[in-house]
Design goal:
The structure is a single chain. This protein is α+β, with helices and mostly antiparallel strands. It has two domains: 39 residues; 152 residues, Glucose Permease (Domain IIA), CATH 2.70.70. Helix content is 20%, strand content 33%. The chain is built from four helices and 14 strands. The strands form three sheets. An eight-stranded antiparallel beta sheet has the order 9-5-6-7-11-3-2-13. α2 packs antiparallel against α3. 38% of the residues are buried.
């Protein structure tokens, strides 16, 4: 099934902010103007600051990458929390894998991007809890959206949108069967959250724990 017109508009966004943020920004502007008109100075200052923060939070800069076809880009801005080698097949790609976890704070761009060109074979949403995204148990127990992608060179990778302690909204603009390109926008998570990426175990990683990353630009590693 192909993505709807609205989803395509969000994926191909030409605005400097994500369209998901427009209702919040418009509401903030109206409250700011209203409080100013009523002479409510403290409320005016509060709403003005909240509106500016909302505009900044939902920023959506244009990005380009000329990475190799085997390169896996990070799907989120933030910091690499850690790397785990998973020897068994009990993970989203169904084979021994390497798990790279990226944490997004409220100060990062929250628009998520496709790690590598391919076809979306499966999307699975799981309701869950809302532990801090820093914690390892967040990967398994928090609300999440798992996306499985088949690459053009025959590998499977998975990337998982995970809600954090205060995040309560995972947006995903792609569907099963979609053809996607590396660096393409595919979704957003409001406020502090996390992205987990599962690569084949034999992948060559170029990322290290603690490193800051940019979605659609920073290379996590290369597929075998």
């Amino acid at each position: 099934m192909a993505s709807s017109h609205l989803e395509k508009t969000r994926i191909n966004n030409r605005l400097p902010i994500a369209r998901e943020g427009l209702p919040f920004i418009i509401a903030g502007c109206l409250l700011t103007v209203l409080s100013y008109a009523l002479g409510l100075t403290p409320a005016f200052i509060l709403f003005a600051l909240l509106t500016l923060f909302t505009i900044w939070f939902f920023r959506d800069p244009e990005r380009e990458s000329n990475a190799d076809e085997r390169a896996v880009l990070t799907p989120a801005d933030g910091k690499c929390l850690g790397i785990q080698v998973l020897e068994n097949k009990d993970n989203p790609i169904g084979e021994p894998a390497v798990l790279v976890s990226i944490f997004m704070s409220v100060f990062n761009v929250h628009v998520n991007r496709i790690p590598i060109t391919g076809n979306i074979s499966e999307i699975t949403y799981h309701q869950g809890k809302f532990f801090s995204a820093h914690l390892d148990k967040a990967s398994k127990e928090n609300e999440n959206n798992r996306i499985l992608l088949q690459t053009d060179i025959g590998h499977k990778i998975a990337f998982v949108q995970i809600a954090g302690l205060i995040a309560r909204r995972i947006a995903c603009w792609i569907q099963e069967g979609d053809r996607v390109g590396a660096g393409q926008r595919f979704g957003l998570i409001r406020f502090g959250s996390r992205l987990d990426v599962y690569l084949p175990k034999d992948s060559q990683l170029t990322i290290t724990p603690g490193k800051k990353v940019k979605a659609g630009v920073t290379i996590l590693g290369y597929l075998p």
